[in-house]
C-alpha cells in the first residue's frame, strides 16, 4: 500500500453519510457501536480510503466497497462468519478467495454481496474480510468452487498500513 496522500477530519454530515452507509450495508446500529458523535478522519492513499473513527482505523473503502477492517473488533461479532480448516489458512492469508472445501462451519445468514468474516477453526481468530459470491442456501449446496472473494486479510498491504497507524 502506498503512502498516505492526505489525511483530514470529515465534517459531521460526511461522517453521518459514511455511518449510514455502514449501518445499511451491515445492518448494525453504528451509534451503539461508536457513540452518538464519533470523530472521523479520512486517510487517502493511492489505492484506498481509510476511515479513522475515534482515533482507530476501523473502516476502509476497497474498490468502492465500504468494509470494516480486521481491527474493528467491536463489529466483527455482528458479521456472518465462515470458519475454515487449518489447511485453508495459508491460502486465505495470502489473498486467495475462499473455496468450498475449506469451509468447516458457517455462522449467520448472508446474501450475495454481503460482507463476511473468515476465521480459523482452532481459535476462531479473524483472518479475513470477504464478499459473499452467493446466498447462504446456494453455498450449502455446493461441493466445490469459490464462495467468498477475499478483500482484506491478515498480512495484506492494508493490514500492514493499519498496524503502522495504531
Q: Could you report the average pLDDT, rounded to the nearest whole number?
A: 94
Give the low-pLDDT segments.
none
End-to-end separation: 16 Å
Instruction: Look at the structure and name the CATH superfamily of the largest domain.
Output: PUA domain
Total individual domains: 2
| CATH architecture annotation of the largest domain | Roll
Under CATH at level 1, the class of the largest domain stands as Mainly Beta
Report the radius of gyration as a whole number of Å: 16 Å
Query: How many DSSP E strands?
Result: 11
The helical percent reads 10-25%
Structural class: alpha+beta
- The helix/strand order is EHHEEEEEHEEEEHEH
The backbone outline, from C-alpha atoms, is: globular
User: Major β-sheet, in short?
Assistant: 6 strands, mixed
Task: Report the β-strand fraction as a percent range.
Answer: 35-45%
Strand order of the largest sheet: 7-11-10-9-6-8
The CATH topology of the largest domain corresponds to Archaeosine Trna-guanine Transglycosylase, Chain: A, domain 4
